[in-house]
Amino acid sequence: ASSPNLKFILTDVEVTGLSGCKPKQIQHGSKLELKILCQAKLNGNYELNGQVLVLPIKGKGKIHVDLKTTQINVDANYEEKLGDDGKKHWHITKWSYTFELKDKSDVVFENLFDGNEVLGQAARELIANNGNDIIKEIGSPMIKAAVARVMKNIERFFKAIPVEDLILN
């Protein structure tokens, strides 16, 4: 999520909690439209230097994110392919997403300002009180990592279940 005013790099991101995602709405036609409610935790390493919200900020260390109820809206292109079972299955060819944070999210950056407690305290307070705004401003790579995992599981589901068993006529 780097921009002219911000360098933000995430590495070694681990996403947990996605098995509890619940479909809220599914529509299919020429595209597949999904609305999914998820709660997830993300842990990894970050490097940050620039401005977040109104605050100049920098640091390098561990990041912990708790995305409470998040609605993920996915538009997916798909095609039918013959599966190993000789039946037609859906295969996702391309997808895009948007997200809405339905509850307050928690974001914790360890080692802000290289451990300077005075500068770090002000930043931690701002971040603690504005978790959703932080996610909206710089969280796109984190959400994308979570959505990619969800889409991989949906693709696995489609590979296992033929179209004839998915669609009610």
TrEMBL record:
InterPro entries: Haemolymph_juvenile_hormone-bd, To_sf. Pfam families: JHBP. It comes from the Bacteria. This is JHBP domain-containing protein.
